[in-house]
């Protein structure tokens, strides 16, 4: 990788001032040191003029003032686990990466209020490790280990959204540094669940891909750890039965329902084939065409409540056998969740993955899947569907594989055509979203301009122009644009 900081035209005064603020650990120029910051988890790879690693809110303010003064563009980065290239620089060599990985000095837990103040650089795992001794956790269940700031900027959801909500629902407050006025701070750090003293400004930054400001600290609502849980892997009679099953458990199990995940047979088979230590749990029977991973959980003491969730789950399943479900495995929760979390890793071994992170009303999922698979069979028979997703919240990871041994070589233009077909189906036919969890970012920007109504784009763009008039924060531009489709 070329070290862009040595290119002609770089303002040496800016570099010297940044080094003076950040020190040797906080300012990286060497190409080897910068390597991990310029490659995304799945998409995005470029060059960095430099990598800036502040370790305090005050340093972030100073860096922002300097970058605004010199009109230096930056791209924000947390743990760099995002999947839409929002946290990696482009190939111009003109962007600096502002990494918040060192911003992790403050973590204060209020067990009575069930809240935590936490710096943006802490990872989800580090936060939950600290909460564990208080019997609490932050229940955004993900396959990756993102930073807190990144989770807010992307508004992550996860497998247990149906019970706990996404980040937006669990955000009580935050602190963010603005690009304009440069270095000013929005401080909305009150740990309040009720606060109607004007517009809820913290929500401006949620799901914005870092385009509106730099989140440095947050106040999060946390939850009691479950005292018991019960898990089942269920084979529905057919696709329509999946929604019947969901409605039954919502009606009869209420708030105990914490996860309801669909897994296609192709995705399941890939896990068994490529992930060591995982076998067909239904053996000697064959893998089903589709199954549902269902979880009930409760933070109540089972002795005091008198409720044994696994027995309760078993009784509910017995009612449904024959009419709604054909088979089920109860228990072995860790083993069954391991299968679910291993899907993305397993699919990468099958070929080039074409990932769709989509959502729609739950009632539309069966019809969508039927029509999408029909499109594949007719126009793309060499592709393999290996979908899974969060049926309880209408989310679907409609992942497709272009196999390594396919007769047709991977074709970027053909993939773009396919994406447009699937997204048109999702957005126009089923009133869904082309990005359920992953956000916009450069990877999804053309689809944002294709599907988001013009008035909404213009409003988002006006807000961006107000907060970042020089277009210095990242690569996501919300204002309406005649992007090629």
* Spatial separation of the terminal alpha carbons: 31 Å
Return residue spans where pLDDT drops below 50 for at least 5 consecutive residues.
1-8
Largest sheet: 5 strands, antiparallel
Question: What is the averaged pLDDT score?
Answer: 93
Which structural class do the helices and strands define? Answer: alpha+beta
Number of domains: 4
CATH fold topology of the largest domain: Uridine Diphospho-n-acetylenolpyruvylglucosamine Reductase, domain 3
Alpha plus pi helix count: 16
Number of strands: 21
Specify the CATH class of the largest domain: Alpha Beta
C-alpha-based Rg, rounded: 23 Å
Helix amount: 25-40%
Shape: globular
Strand content: 15-25%
CATH architecture of the largest domain: 2-Layer Sandwich
Instruction: Give the strand line-up of the largest sheet.
Output: 5-6-10-8-9
